[in-house]
Amino acid sequence: MPLAFEHETKGQRVLFGSGAAAGHLRDEVARFAALRPLVIAADRQRGLIERAGLAGAVRYHRITEHVPVEVAEDARAAAAQADLVIAIGGGSAIGLAKAVALTSGLPIIATPTTFAGSEATDVWGLTERGQKRTGVDPRVLPRTVVYDAELLESLPVELAVASGLNAVAHCVDSMWGPRADPINAALAMAGLHSLAVGLPGVVAEADRDAIEQSLYGCYLAAVAFASAGSGLHHKICHVLAGAFNLPHAATHAIVLPHVLAFNAPYAPRAAEQIAQALGSGDACQGLDELRARLNAPRALRELGLAEDDLAAAAQAILPQVPAANPRPVEADTLDRLLRAAWAGDQPRMESHP
Predict the structure, then answer these.
(1) What one-character-per-residue DSSP string does 111-167 give?
(2) What are 135-148's pLDDT values in tens digits?
(3) CA–centroid distance for 117 within its chain
(4) What's the pLDDT at 233?
(5) Average pLDDT over the chain, rounded to whole?
(6) d(Cα 200, Cα 202) in Å, to the nearest integer?
(7) Do residues 146 and 111 touch, judged by C-beta distance below 8 A?
(8) Of 40, 28, 25, 9, nearest in space to 104 by CA
(9) CA-CA distance, 213 to 233, in Å (whole number)?
(10) Residue 68 has what DSSP assignment?
(11) Cα–Cα distance measured from residue 286 to residue 280, given in angstroms and rounded to the nearest whole number
(12) How far is residue 179's CA from residue 227's CA, in Å, rounded to a whole number?
């Protein structure tokens, strides 16, 4: 069968090495010839900031999940005289750096401390009055990513599981995103395999080799996702997290198996590739087994979502469903998916009619 597709690769420098973050940050600041960097990081990153020679930089640590507009405006004001933005942290810190870059055009150096994957995408998100807006802009793609497994050795297990499964969701959604193509699929499945191998070791003993494998998988997943675009899973999660202030990563971890079960019968080739990457004969079973090993969260109600909110959530999600989703999404089928995720029911895969 002949191949025909259009693929875009995002340009980015990646520096990967355990224990090397401080040196890499110092070298990158010099490479950018930055004199006034803004460092977005929590206070617990003080040691790394000092080792990187950034003790005199302007610091910003008002980091809030989902990047509220008022926080973004405050950070933009702090960056008024900056010539570089350095983000050290998870998706919230990097997302805030993106909000600054979106209006200033400042280059970003991202140093992730979770498996969120935001560091490798040109996707930004802002929340205002309970609604999360997302977009794509080349200005927000970090110019350099510094990966260091040492920075994740103290990551709480609960957050490692949730952000790791968020990375898994990047892999799965890349198989049927609006710009899905064979290159994205290859990257996503390589990333999924590394995550499936690495994450259990991260959870069991914070093993550095396992963290490195998971970070590597996280990066491949995010690169694939940045190219393929947001699929059904991410559209659902962005609405839920933004409108109801649910934790970003945990929401992804809970919704993912339900979207996979929903789409898999309508995308048999993608389902087969997902199963192979997970080392299973069945995509849904393989994901369920991985989630069981990670003791993953299972119910949206446990995150504080009220059952009465589901109807409003479905109404907000429907207009955002990607036209390229392999299975048609209707009000009743979306309602069943959301209610199963809310209750923590076992995902049910329906056969293709």
Answers:
(1) EESSS--GGG--EEEEEETTEEEEEE-GGGS-SEEEE-GGGGTT--HHHHHHHHHHH
(2) 999 999 999 999 99
(3) 4
(4) 95
(5) 94
(6) 5
(7) yes
(8) 40
(9) 24
(10) B
(11) 5
(12) 7
Name the CA dihedral angle for 19, 21, 23, 29, rounded to a multiple of 10 degrees: 180
DSSP label at residue 63: -
Tokens 């609960």 -> residue? 158
Contact 165, 255 (CB under 8 A): no
Three-class SS of 190-227? HHHHHHHHHHHHHHHHCCHHHHHHHHHHHHHHHHHHHH
How confident is the model at residue 129, as a pLDDT? 80
Beta-bridge partner residues of 14: 145
State the virtual CA torsion across 313, 315, 318, 320 in degrees, nearest 10.
Answer: -70
- Cβ proximity of 160 and 122 under 8 Å: no
How confident is the model over 172-227, as pLDDT tens digits? 999 999 999 999 999 999 999 999 999 999 998 878 999 999 999 999 999 999 99
Q: What are the structure tokens assigned to 9, written together?
A: 């690769």
Burial class (CB in 10 A: 0-12, 13-18, 19+), 270: buried
Contact 301, 255 (CB under 8 A): no
User: For residue 320, which amino acid is it?
Assistant: Q
Q: Tokens for 267?
A: 């995308």
pLDDT over 90 (residue 258): yes
The 10s digit of each residue's pLDDT in 264-294 is: 999 999 999 999 999 999 999 999 999 999 9
Single pTM value for the model: 0.93
Q: Is the pLDDT of residue 48 over 90?
A: yes
Instruction: Tell me the per-residue pLDDT of 292-322, one tens digit each, with 9 for 90 and over.
Output: 999 999 999 999 999 999 999 999 999 999 9
